[in-house]
Design brief:
- The protein is of the alpha+beta class.
- Helices cover about 40% and strands about 15% of the residues.
- The protein is built from 4 helices and 2 strands, in the order αββααα.
- A two-stranded antiparallel ribbon has the order 1-2.
- β1 and β2 (about 30-35) form a beta hairpin.
Amino acid sequence: LKLICLTATSLRELKSDGIFYRKDYKTNPSKVEYGLTKLGLKLKIVLDDLVKFHELYKPQFTACSTNDANS
């Protein structure tokens, strides 16, 4: 599953909703990993379809910018 341009706020919200987990490896430089929880896996079919949609219409989407990351 590819994640498409999620802000830190979005990831925190999805984590608090129980969709994603966050694993902090407590390394320097820092390394974290996000993944789907059991609940998130139930959404995998929908998420896969969203990825397919994005791939199909990719030319119409703009890449993530630094402004997106800060919103």
